[in-house]
Write a structure and sequence with these properties.
The chain is α/β, with parallel strands linked by helices and 324 residues long. It has one domain: 3-Layer(aba) Sandwich (Rossmann fold), CATH 3.40.50.1820. Helix 3 crosses helix 4. Strand 5, helix 4 and strand 6 form a beta-alpha-beta unit. Strands 1-2-4-3-5-6-7-8 form an eight-stranded mixed sheet, sandwiched between helices. The N terminus is likely disordered. The protein is 31% helix and 13% strand.
Length: 324
């Protein structure tokens, strides 16, 4: 199926117990970094400033070509209770971040942006919380800059870079995805012409088609079959050019990481995740990490957030207890 690369997206779902008024999603800080990207960022301090840790948690959202969902602010409370500042941002081209020429969307641009953001924030090291595709990006960044990563938390990790695994939606409620003719035409044009397609197809128009697919067709694959968790409206802001280009790079990447860089790593995966366990196991092998398997949870990890938080808290209190 020619549109299979759309299957790895992580979408927004509700997170109970978090007041959205705690942070203004509509008013991010805009940071112009050395690569030329302009990134929308949100920074939340720890719950008790007197317990503040030096090294921040940087969230890497799913996609590619998507953005930070508002629910992630609430999910990050487990880090802030432990004294960590959490930094969120929309990857270039998505959400509230600035767009760049369509020909410039590449996996290596996202890696370079992350390194430039670390420098712009004045951080010697960062701890990466990578979700879905964000875990793939975290793995590549950690391989490029192992001395800048103090820890990795990979939730529902996306397909391991360069791994051609098979997705399985049989444990979810997702059926056949119906891709309309306008989106099919846009994908064909972008795949054929690359960035030059932008002359006749704007990023905004292609993104609107992408947003419609994400909102209408891909949500049911995020939870286990029959789950009662309700999905929440998404803000939009997807970028089809970034999605196609970056996923192509990720799939074709000849990833030969340095053996065991010594970065403390936690991997959390639900039993109904549509991505293969073999992919998650590759992250375990690369980083000598700990894999926590949660029964009855899907790719969205929504069914049992308490168990997700306990796993992360244990990791913070043990493997990362000596992180500054």
């Amino acid at each position: 199926m020619r549109f299979v690369l759309l299957a790895g997206l992580l979408l927004g779902l509700t997170a109970p117990g978090f007041a959205q008024s705690q942070i203004s999603y509509a008013l991010p800080d805009r940071v112009k970094i050395s690569t030329g990207s302009e990134l929308a960022t949100w920074t939340l301090p720890p719950n008790r400033p007197e317990n503040q840790r030096k090294t921040p948690i940087v969230f890497l959202h799913g996609g590619p070509g998507l953005y930070t969902e508002a629910r992630r602010f609430g999910e990050g409370d487990v880090f802030r209770r432990a004294g960590f500042t959490t930094i969120y941002f929309d990857q270039v081209g998505g959400g509230k971040s600035g767009r760049i020429p369509a020909s410039e969307y590449r996996l290596e641009r996202l890696v370079a942006d992350l390194e430039a953001l670390r420098i712009a924030k004045g951080q010697d090291k960062i701890i990466l919380w990578g979700n879905s595709f964000g875990a793939s990006l975290a793995a590549v960044y950690a391989d490029r800059y192992p001395n800048r990563v103090a820890g990795l938390i990979l939730t529902s990790p996306g397909m391991y870079p360069g791994f051609a695994g098979k997705r399985d939606y049989s444990r979810t409620d997702r059926g056949k995805v119906n891709i309309g003719k306008p989106l099919s035409s846009a994908i064909s044009k972008i795949d054929r012409d690359g960035g030059s397609a932008e002359a006749n197809l704007s990023q905004a128009d292609a993104g609107q088609l992408f947003d419609e697919l994400v909102a209408a067709e891909l949500m049911d694959g995020m939870t286990c079959k029959g789950a009662t968790v309700q999905t929440a409206p998404l803000p939009g802001g997807g970028n089809l050019y970034a999605q196609r280009a970056v996923f192509r790079d990720l799939k074709k990447l000849n990833f030969k990481p340095q053996p065991n860089p010594g970065i403390p790593t936690l991997i959390v995966r639900g039993s109904c995740d549509f991505l293969p366990r073999e992919s998650a196991q590759k992250y375990v092998s690369q980083f000598n990490g700990t894999l926590v398997a949660l029964e009855g949870s899907g790719h969205g990890l929504l069914e049992d957030r308490a168990s997700v938080d306990r796993s992360i808290a244990d990791f913070l209190n043990n493997a990362l207890s000596k992180a500054p």
